[in-house]
Amino acid sequence: MKRVVIVGGGITGLAAAHALEKGRERCEVQLVEAGPQLGGNLRTLRHNGFIIDAGPDSWIAAKPHATRLAREVGLGDELIGTRPDTRRVYIVWQRKLYPMPEGLILGVPTAVKPLIDSELLGWDAKMRAGLDLVVPPRRWREDDDESIGSFVARRLGHDVAERIAGPLLGGIFAGDPGSLSVRACVPQLVDAERDHGSLVRAMRALKEKRRAKAAAGESEASAFLSLKRGVGDLVVNVAHKLRDAEVSTSRAARKIDRLPEGDPRGRWIVETSGGPLHADDVVLAVPANVVAPLVGDLDPELSSMCAEVTYASAATVFLAFRKFDVRHPLDAVGFLVPRAENRPILACTFVSSKWDHRAPAGQVLLRVFFGGAGNEHMVARDDADLVRLARSQVLDLLDIDRPPSFAKVFRFKRSSPQPHVGHIPRMRRLLARAATHPGLHVGGNGYLGTGIPDAVRQGEEIAARITPLDT
Ligand SMILES: Cc1cc2nc3c(=O)[nH]c(=O)nc-3n(C[C@H](O)[C@H](O)[C@H](O)COP(=O)(O)OP(=O)(O)OC[C@H]3O[C@@H](n4cnc5c(N)ncnc54)[C@H](O)[C@@H]3O)c2cc1C
Questions:
Q1: Any atom of ligand 1 within 6 Å of the Cβ of 40
Q2: Which of 162, 177, 199, 373 has a beta carbon 3.0–4.6 Å from 148's, enabling a disulfide?
Q3: pLDDT (tens digit, 0 to 9) for every residue of the chain, 471 residues total?
Q4: How far is the CA of 415 from the centre of ligand 1 (A)?
Q5: Is 9 a pocket residue for ligand 1 (Cβ < 6 Å)?
Q6: Which helix H or strand E contains 318, and what residues bound it?
Q7: CB of 282 shorter than 6 A to ligand 1
Q8: In 3D, which of 450, 353, 356, 283 has the Cα closest to residue 81?
Q9: Domain holding 268: CATH number?
Q10: Same structural domain for residues 201 and 290?
Q11: Ligand 1 near 451 CB (within 6 A)
């Protein structure tokens, strides 16, 4: 029987363990997680009737892997979409909240009237956005790349890039749109320019497709999915379904080395805080900055490739208020803050407006984001300071002057990968280097793909390389 050690009990490692149990060949799986609990970034806390997803609160519905996994582990009936009545976003501009023009897809306008009516952009910016229809498309070759900021500015103008697409698309990565790779972060935009010659034309075509679906009786589905009791249930249920895998928490991998050829214990030795483990296959389901020191002796080149992948830190501050104390209607999923606003926060989610089931009746829950690339010093501030800053921002922007009924702070240190321009070929080289070591597998947060569905996909793909799926 193959022995497999999985390092990392985030959703990538768990998805790999789950998939290995479905494999054709039975494997003896040991999963080691450094932290006291499983889940990595996926952390759900329940407090006085509130459901608090500290980090990720959902995943993109268009990527099927997380949804399929949720169904497989018995969560099909728990899947929820965002509330249909609040599917809009505000942008902070010059100290005021402006609704994003309706009809945007990935920050690209698809309708003329909402753009013309929007007070977020001046006339020159609106005219410039319209030039997308005639600006000649760039000819994309395989590994060409560009930053999100420069790509959107080239197609739709500087103001749309700065006020709409930058905070919307860069915000997902807590990153600087001026250095994030459009190819790695929003490949749909590259496809749109290549296939349609214009982002507006491409997104209009997509809108038409969605309309046709709606006309055929399929209701406009939510772009994001979550779970009624929080995304943490995905972790709990996947872990619960593992039949044979041996799972240890508070056990960190420290070093990975090869065993001599023909060693009956397997190909690999994984030194951990709880003693050595031997394996035929090792799955490193941890971010690249964690892999770097683990493989330092084994392969210094792989180690330095991993060390080059950068991760930003972030903090989330949750504030609960009585609905009664909030004058703003909170009629959106939240607001985004463009970098040019120079505020200490990145965004605010109106959690209880975005999702049902997140706050008890008569209460509202807000989540304020701090940190991200260039603002990581904010994450080092103490809890009281972050809560004070969060309160001053919601006072200024949402006019909430009452104290919260509770506040909670969570930190995510070096957890948000920053796929900079050129990320994809760099990752291909890194993964090809890792593949030169038979039985060593690397995947998860920060390699190829982003977010929970890609993490699940990578875990499943690694498992399929170790043992093909039992059909
Ligand atoms: C604030 C925030 C919000 C996000 N929001 C969303 C969202 O809304 N939707 C979405 O799809 N994605 C979101 N993401 C991204 C998403 O969280 C990640 O893509 C996903 O969780 C990655 O899972 P992973 O298992 O690869 O990595 P991780 O979650 O980082 O898990 C890695 C695990 O490895 C463990 N580990 C580290 N070192 C060792 C060691 N030496 N030995 C053993 N174990 C170790 C860690 O403790 C951790 O549990 C968000 C991320 C952050 C930080």
A1: yes
A2: 177
A3: 899 999 999 999 999 999 999 988 889 999 999 999 999 999 999 999 999 999 999 999 989 999 999 999 999 999 999 998 998 999 999 999 999 988 888 888 888 888 888 999 999 999 999 999 999 999 998 889 999 999 999 999 999 999 998 898 888 899 999 999 999 999 999 999 999 999 999 999 988 887 787 676 555 678 899 999 999 999 999 999 999 999 999 999 999 999 999 999 999 999 999 999 999 999 999 999 999 999 999 999 999 999 999 999 999 999 999 999 999 999 999 999 998 899 999 999 999 999 998 999 999 999 999 999 989 999 999 999 999 999 999 999 999 999 999 999 999 999 999 999 999 999 999 999 999 999 999 999 999 988 999 999 999 999 999 997 765
A4: 6
A5: yes
A6: strand 311-322
A7: no
A8: 356
A9: 3.50.50.60
A10: no
A11: yes
User: Does 74 map to a domain?
Assistant: no
In this structure, the answer to whether residues 244 and 269 fall within a common structural domain is: yes
Same domain, 242 and 303: yes
Q: What percent of the chain is helix, strand and coil (3-state, nearest 5)? A: 40, 25, 35
338 shares a domain with 243:
no
- Domain contains 75: no
445 CA distance to ligand 1 middle (Å): 6
Classify residue 436: in a domain, yes or no: yes
Residue whose CA is closest, atom 19 of ligand 1? Answer: 451
CA of 412 to the centre of ligand 1 (A): 9
- Does residue 403 share a domain with residue 432? no
Determine the residue of 58, 65, 286 to mutate for testing ligand 1's pocket, defined as the one with the most ligand atoms within 8 A of the Cβ atom: 286
Beta strands per DSSP E along 61-177: 79-81, 89-93, 96-99
Q: Which domain range does residue 141 map to?
A: 104-215
Counts of helices then strands in the chain (DSSP H, E): 17, 20
202 and 110 in a common domain: yes
Q: 359 with 322, same domain?
A: yes
Sheet holding 2-7, edge to edge: 246-248, 27-32, 2-7, 281-284, 440-442
**140 lies in a domain?**
yes
